[in-house]
Amino acid sequence: MQKGAIRVQTENIFPIIKKFLYSDHEIFIRELVSNAVDATQKLKTLASVGEFKGELGELAITVKLDKGKKTLTISDNGIGMTAEEVDKYINQVAFSGAEEFLDKYKGQNEGTNIIGHFGLGFYSSFMVSNVVEIITQSHKDAPAVRWECDGSPEYTLEETTREAGRGTDIIMHINEESEEFLDEHRIKTILEKFCKFLPVPVKYEDNQINNTHPAWTKKPSELTTEDYQNFYKELYPFSEPPLFWIHLNVDYPFNLTGILYFPKINKSYEIQKDKISLYSNQVFVTDEVKDIVPEFLMLLHGVIDSPDIPLNVSRSYLQGDPNVKKISSYITKKVADKLDEMFRNDRKGFEEKWESIGLFAKYGMMTDDKFREKGNKFLILEDVDASKFYTLDEYKQETAAIQTNKEEKQVILYATNPVQQDSYITAAKAKGYKVVKLDSLVDAAFLNQMETHWEKVQFTRVDADIADNLIDKDENTTHVLTEDQETRLKALFEKIPQQHVKVELKGLSAASQPVIVTRPEFMRRMKDMAAVGGSGMSWYANMPDEINMTVNANHPIYQQILKEGNDQLQEKQIRNLADLALLSQNLLTGADLTAFVTRSVELMGEKSN
Ligand code: ADP
Ligand code: MG
């Protein structure tokens, strides 16, 4: 029997392992199963190049619990190790740069990272074990060996026999603090988390727990729509079927495969982030892909697999990695191309899905310049008259003649709430304008940003002014009132104790409303954004509402009111007209609303007198 001390440059790795790996102990299973996968794949490779000529047999990994002996054993029938190899790969732990690394991460909980950094995968077994045994027989003609270590730097190494022949058993004698790892369900959960899609069969309690050929590892041409949908079900058993998907597949300048699914979004509050899992050669790494996938694509679901991202990723690592940057822009490009393709090949279908797609698309166009360039072509605006959509170019073309203002800017008229803004929409449509619906959560910020990116385009909400002034201010104020009538009417409106309301007399068509309340675009937008918590916007939130009241002097009702001999009645009637206009804009609340109701009742009484 050979005895020796594990050679590491730092005097002892075990205290380090224990110190750094306090949390997240479960990853030892991932490390050991991954080693078993590696050993199996290596054997397959040797067989395929003719270096291994024996029988491969059924290659599989077995995970076994023995509660009586308090052991957890992970076995494979891969390449195995000779005594020399155990000495080389297990005993001589490469630990260069340890001091430096420890200094850097002092006080941080970077345990998982430290393991990967030093290739301490196997040693993670000591996080949960008093004693670890390795029983291994090489695929080469060499005796089986048994290695044992109790967590001190001393180990023993001796010849033995391995009943199963070629392969390796890692036997962990689970320590007292780690008894959770002697629980069947706990182990099952961990295996399902890390090993669900490993390329070598993993058996636990007589069942194979993994799918060795998940859809993303296959060629798109081998997969049917049903295959993609079934795989989605495998990933998210309780979710509604996805809208569509993108199969990622690159091998240069980095390796990346995966499938990203577009979920159906009915309500924006249903959005679930953190539904993309990162794998490295089919080994689960993390659900936190923030640094790999651009933020606007975090709404997608699915899997990405890249061997170029090490198993033990840490945030600080990912942020600095050039491959990660490339992966991120590759994914962005693929998503943009897919949307573009869908738009061109099946516009109708694209429009039907726009409610869900639009959210990603707009978010993406706001945060990513490249994505915006492509998005400008497939972004569509929905007319308030449902089921008509325009691209930006189409809208511009169709409205250029009448919706271009004096500054040569094209005015896109929009409604955020077509039901509430109906009277304004009707007025705008009567002038031949096209009004689009921009009512989603991102729209306010979206249109704000696009005004800075799109040349000569301006968004104006349909209630920002009376229809005559929506494109350009119409200075014509002629109307049918006599000078005397005008003076009296103005005086009546000035009696209204509303602050921050600007009253203007205009001669609109007799069919238009007698009073129209509008809210200038700029201030309204700023206040809307302040209301949803835009940074640096709170100043606007405290500003009073800016309201314009346009009095349509051509409306016949004024002729009638001005004939009235009773001053008080006149005032009440005017006040009511103003309140009705405010009410239609949802701007009449509280005591003002109560006063309106009371006054209305009074007026009815006076009428019948
Ligand atoms: P890494 O996997 O990063 O090389 P590990 O500490 O996980 O580091 O493993 C160290 C080495 O031990 C492996 O590279 C491999 O040579 C050997 N080894 C570990 N487990 C097995 C196994 N089940 N079969 C054969 N060799 C193994
Ligand atoms: Mg390893």
Outline of the structure:
The protein is of the alpha+beta class. It has four domains: 2-208, Heat Shock Protein 90; 215-349, Ribosomal Protein S5, domain 2 (2-Layer Sandwich), CATH 3.30.230; 379-475, Rossmann fold (3-Layer(aba) Sandwich); 476-519 and 541-609, Four Helix Bundle (Hemerythrin (Met), subunit A) (Up-down Bundle). The chain is 39% helix and 19% strand.
Summarize the helices and strands and which ones pair or pack.
Elements (H helix, E strand, L loop, with lengths): L1 E4 L7 H8 L6 H22 L12 E6 L4 E6 L6 H9 L6 H8 L5 H8 L10 E9 L6 E6 L4 E7 L6 E8 L9 H12 L6 E3 L2 E2 L16 H11 L8 E7 L5 E7 L13 E5 L2 E4 L14 E5 L9 H6 L1 H24 L1 H6 L1 H14 L1 H10 L1 E4 L5 E3 H8 L10 E6 L6 H9 L4 E3 L5 H11 L3 E5 L21 H12 L6 E6 L8 E4 L2 H11 L6 H4 L5 E6 L3 H8 L3 H18 L5 H19 L1
Parallel strand pairs: 2-8, 12-14, 17-18, 17-19, 20-22
Antiparallel strand pairs: 1-6, 2-3, 3-7, 4-5, 4-7, 5-6, 8-9, 10-11, 11-14, 12-13, 15-16, 15-18, 21-22
Magnesium ion binds next to helix 2.
Give a verbal description of the structure:
The chain has 609 residues and is α+β, with helices and mostly antiparallel strands. Strand 5 and strand 6 form a beta hairpin. Strands 1-6-5-4-7-3-2-8-9 form a 9-stranded mixed sheet, covered by helices on one side. Strands 10-11-14-12-13 form a 5-stranded mixed sheet, with helices on both faces. It folds into 4 domains: 2-208, 2-Layer Sandwich (Heat Shock Protein 90), CATH 3.30.565.10; 215-349, Ribosomal Protein S5, domain 2 (2-Layer Sandwich); 379-475, Rossmann fold, CATH 3.40.50.11260; 476-519 and 541-609, Up-down Bundle (Four Helix Bundle (Hemerythrin (Met), subunit A)), CATH 1.20.120. It is built from 21 helices and 22 strands. Magnesium ion (MG) binds at residues 31, 34-35, 121.
